[in-house]
Amino acid sequence: MGVLRLAPHAFADNGRSLTRAAVTRGRRMISEGADIVEIACTPPPVEFPQAEQVANVVGALSGDARVAVATGSPTLAAAATAAGATLLCDYSMVPGGADGAAREELVGVAAEAGAGWVAVHTAAPVQSADGESGAGRAVAGALESLEAQAEEASAAGLSEIYLDPGIGCGRSHEEDLDLLSGLQRLAGLGRPLVVGTGDGSLIDGLHAAADTRRLPVPEAAGERNADRLEGALVVAVWAMLAGAAVLRTQHVAATVQAARTVGARRPVGTP
Question: What 3-state class would DSSP assign to 243?
Answer without folding.
Answer: coil
